[in-house]
Fold these 2 entries.
Entry 1:
Amino acid sequence: MTKVAFIGLGVMGFPMAGHLAAAGHDVTVYNRTASKAEDWAGKHGGKAAPTPRQAAAGAEVVFTCVGNDDDLRSVILGEAGAFAGMASGTILVDNTTASAEVARELAAAGAGQGIAFIDAPVSGGQAGAENGQLTVMCGGEQAAFDRAQPVIAAFARAVTLMGPVGAGQLTKMVNQICIAGLIQGLAEGMTFGQKAGLDMAKVIDVIGKGAAQSWQMDNRAQTMCQGKFDFGFAVDWMRKDLGICLAEARSNGARLPVTALVDQF
Ligand SMILES: NC(=O)c1ccc[n+]([C@@H]2O[C@H](COP(=O)([O-])OP(=O)(O)OC[C@H]3O[C@@H](n4cnc5c(N)ncnc54)[C@H](OP(=O)(O)O)[C@@H]3O)[C@@H](O)[C@H]2O)c1
């Protein structure tokens, strides 16, 4: 059993922290909207703290899962931030989808205090978080990863160290670039089929067994045809992610014409 803190109880963080508690860890949570932290503590039997610093005090591993780079800085840095409550030798695991740049910035800030930082964005969506079946892509030092991995495993089906700090976020960018174009292509195919008067359930069943098959087709094509789109991943988050990808591409020289186009839709 490890003493852990979880900061950010949104669509993803709430169930992820729940899996940590269910695995037997001693969990203290913090959420900006305090009522959610109280709900969580009531449901999972852990403790709620009034600031990130107080949640992180005494924890061996501190998790964060907030919105974007600035949200992350606001819960980690400063007087009431998580780093202020953490001791030397502890680990901060960040599950937010953020830039590789902020991961490196926070890792440098933590290193000054002897705190290891692992960027650990996730894939698998709300369902993956609720089922404890997320894919976690990590960036950081091997020694810190080896200590954090068994704890992260409470909400994951795969936890992989991709390289140094920032490599987790860069991997998640590849993930989002792959999804953006694919989901647009899928939407166009579904619209075309409907306009052509085809039985779309039959179409999806048939082409889903061939080369057009994808996770998006298996999980989203049917519901797209029914006009259902609310599956816990906000469009604003996807646009935030594509913005991160496009900014990174400007610095590494990759050209992303399809990603840039989909971002404008
Ligand atoms: N949803 C998905 O399917 C999915 C999948 C993979 C990755 N992600 C990524 O995971 C992260 C969280 O996503 P989510 O869907 O869980 O978002 P969400 O439901 O909107 O939750 C965001 C959480 O961050 C907190 N927060 C935001 N800004 C803050 C700030 N400035 N200070 C303190 N707390 C702050 C929110 O607190 P309040 O409760 O007070 O608003 C809330 O707990 C995002 O980076 C997202 O891109 C999401």
Note: The mean pLDDT is 97.
Entry 2:
Amino acid sequence: MTQRFVVATAGHVDHGKSALIRALTGTEPDRWAEERERGLTIDLGFAEMTLESGRSVSFVDVPGHERFLGNMLAGLGPAPIVCFVVSADDGWSAQTSEHRDAIAALGISAGIVVISKSDVAPDSIASVTQQIRPELADTGLATAPIVATSAIEGQGLDAFRRELDRLLGTLLAPSTTAPIRFWVDRSFAVKGAGTVVTGTLAAGTLRVNDALQLSGTDTQVTIRNLQSHGASTDELTPVTRAAVNLRGIDVEEIGRGDALITPGAWFHTSTVEVVGTHGVDFTDLAQEFSVHIGTATVYAHCRPLDSGFARLTLDRALPLHIGDRFILRGTGQRLITGGATVLDLDPPPLRRRGAAPRGPRAGRAPSG
Ligand SMILES: Nc1nc2c(ncn2[C@@H]2O[C@H](COP(=O)(O)OP(=O)(O)O)[C@@H](O)[C@H]2O)c(=O)[nH]1
Ligand SMILES: [Mg+2]
């Protein structure tokens, strides 16, 4: 069976992410006319290629511009592998740091670093490489391969494919039997077919006629049709891009940030206790910030329990499990302020104001 993988791009605007995906796949990842006119990725783009080994790779191309960080996180959130792009001529820059922080917060540990536009600044490749290593030292990409490419002249594209193939060969296959939590990144209506949603299938198997539940609701749907990159199929195994044609739901009822789940398989909660990652100090953060997980963004009220631990009250219940990773974002400013890992899905009520217990009670799973 073909092994499938999903790779998200990351990196500063104009550093050549979309050009690289175009050069590798022959597909234009900027789907909107406005994106092509402005030469600027606004929303997620999709393309695929097959490597020499036969492994199939789907790319989710993300916008680098800070205004579209929400779209970027929706692409990166469910994707387990990253293609991290830094241009040879500009080097490391502000948005590169933000995307690095998002990757770190998500705990992504598989990726390839690309030094793009090698044709423009061939003499800078060595110095940019030296810049990159320490910046990534605290992340899962600390030892990731670095490949210099030119999307225009073609240098390094074969090396990129080879390194990617080698990396994919080292990854553990995701569970095909895990309960589904399919984060939706697009929904649209197709004439004659009805509602279609797309997303990255990270774990579990989708089959035609399977029943799914719209997370946080009683709405039950069934899968009428399945496609990946335009090809119909009866079954999709992870990790892959999936377009799911649904029976039992109108297109207005579902969109980015929603999840389709295996009915009854997930605990929904809006109150969690978390441990901060990458030096987050909750006593330093604002009381309100937004939290990203999967394709969802929710507001969170933060009650620090300690500098490194906090209770978060989310503005809507999400299907979560212990160990889920959040990206934390300030509300006033756009910068990513850090990450957090879910420790407790069902913490007991705090007895009175100010009586927060100190420290976490790690690993307590809810019953049922
Ligand atoms: N010379 C050269 N130009 C490039 C290369 N990659 C991208 N560009 C140009 O840089 C600009 C921004 O590229 P784009 O892929 O849209 O950047 P993105 O915002 O990271 O997706 C475009 O004008 C590209 O044609 C490259 O390898 N060599
Ligand atoms: Mg782009």
Note: The chain is about 15% helix and 35% strand.
